[in-house]
Amino acid sequence: MTGTHTTSTDSTVDRESLPVELVDEQGRPAGICPVSDAHTAPGRLHRAFSVLLFGPDGRVLLQQRAAVKTRFPLRWSNTCCGHPKPGQSLAEAAAVRLGEELRIGAELREVGVYRYRADDPATGRVEDEWDHVLIGEFTGVPGHPDPAEVAALRWADPDRLDSDIDSAPADFTPWLHGVLATARAGR
């Protein structure tokens, strides 16, 4: 599916205060807390999603996270990611974030879950996520991503990306390798 541009964004929202769904070790709902609490050490396991968009040539669209991000700023990552509101469908939440961050749309499907935990030494924050991986297709490059979310975009060959992550892991988010593996297995 060719991506379509959208304009749904509200830069006045404090994303760190939004509710996130806590989950148990099997991914079952276990409560609610603000995003900031879930990412404060020692971290709390919560539901998240990661989107990877593939081009017609098989490359993946990566984003470099904005410098103002509270976790892993300026690192290259999957196309977009976020947290569904408690009770919100993953597809809806992911579509909203694609619109907010990259100002695009794409048809998405879930291909698996990647469970990970990562400490960010630069910010002292923690990722402890039950991460639903969604994939879609997109042609082109988004014209004007939200600069509060995205520093840069680029297309990458998945095979080359694996070796780039292995040779310079500090340039990438710690979940990218697992998200990429989950996405490729589900294609």
UniProtKB/TrEMBL annotation:
Its cofactor is Mg(2+); Mn(2+). It is found in: Cytoplasm. Residues 44-178 form the Nudix hydrolase domain. GO terms for molecular function: isopentenyl-diphosphate delta-isomerase activity; metal ion binding. It holds the Pfam family NUDIX. Gene3D superfamilies: Nucleoside Triphosphate Pyrophosphohydrolase. Mn(2+) binds at residues 39, 46, 83, 127, 129. One of its GO terms (cellular component) is cytoplasm. The active site is at 81, 129. InterPro entries: Idi_bact, IsopentenylPP_isomerase_typ1, NUDIX_hydrolase-like_dom_sf, NUDIX_hydrolase_dom. It catalyses: isopentenyl diphosphate = dimethylallyl diphosphate. Binds 1 Mg(2+) ion per subunit. The magnesium ion binds only when substrate is bound. One of its GO terms (biological process) is dimethylallyl diphosphate biosynthetic process. Its EC number is 5.3.3.2. The keyword Magnesium applies. Pathway: Isoprenoid biosynthesis; dimethylallyl diphosphate biosynthesis; dimethylallyl diphosphate from isopentenyl diphosphate: step 1/1. Keywords: Cytoplasm, Isomerase, Isoprene biosynthesis, Magnesium, Manganese, Metal-binding. Mg(2+) binds at residue 101. NCBIfam families: IPP_isom_1, PRK03759.1. Belongs to the IPP isomerase type 1 family. Catalyzes the 1,3-allylic rearrangement of the homoallylic substrate isopentenyl (IPP) to its highly electrophilic allylic isomer, dimethylallyl diphosphate (DMAPP). This is Isopentenyl-diphosphate Delta-isomerase. It comes from Nocardia cerradoensis. The lineage of its organism: Bacteria, Bacillati, Actinomycetota, Actinomycetes, Mycobacteriales.
